[in-house]
Amino acid sequence: MTAKRTKRTEKPLTIAQANEMAAGHAEVSVDPIDATLWRVEGDGWTEAHEPMGRAAFARLLADKCLSHDGSGCGEGSRAKAQVEREKIKTYAAKMPDGRTVRCTVPEDPTPDEVLFDAIKDNFSPQAVAAMAACLQAANTKNRRVNQQLTWFAGELVKCVR
């Protein structure tokens, strides 16, 4: 049986982890206007962002350090090329106090994430567990179908954890 690989959304870093990762090139704090956002400040720039995972934050740091202060805190041309390939999408937003900030655009969820989010939103944990139990008991004459049912039952179990 081949394992199905899906892209999982990275768990966001804590502010402490982000500051440790920034290693003095930027400072991350809670945005004073919207506490759900990060305020990321570097030498000559300040932006508000949704909390992000390690890879997205690394791209942001590489982009800002390479393009703003020229210090090369990334890894030179290799990091710059990677930043160009994986540019973080942002948009300008006007805050209630009149200042304009850059906000990150969340990455699109994978089809699996959409499906399991819909299941979590529309069914009780007991109903999801009942579906998983029924699927675990299901048996067909087709081995591939049985493998798919087993995989799906396992994913449903993860939804109720």
Question: What features would you describe in this structure?
Answer:
With 161 residues, the protein is of the alpha+beta class. The chain folds into 2 domains: 15-104, no CATH class; 111-160. Helix content is 48%, strand content 16%. The strands form 2 sheets. The protein has a 3-stranded antiparallel beta sheet with strand order 1-2-3. Strands 4-5 form a two-stranded antiparallel ribbon. A hairpin with a 7-residue loop joins strand 1 and strand 2 (38-42). Helix 2 packs across helix 3 (76-85). The radius of gyration is 21 Å and the shape is elongated. The relative contact order is 0.11. Mean pLDDT is 80; it is low at 67-75.
- First-residue to last-residue Cα separation: 25 Å
Summarize the helix and strand pattern as letters. HEEEHHEEHHH
Look at the structure and give the mean pLDDT.
Answer: 80
Tell me the overall shape: elongated
User: How much of the sequence is in beta strands?
Assistant: 15-25%
Strand order of the largest sheet: 1-2-3
Judged by helices, strands and strand pairing, the structural class is: alpha+beta
User: Whole-number radius of gyration?
Assistant: 21 Å
List how many beta strands DSSP finds. Answer: 5
Number of helices: 6
| Main sheet overview | 3 strands, antiparallel
Low-confidence regions: 67-75
What is the total domain count? 2
Oligomer: single chain
Helix percent reads 40-55%
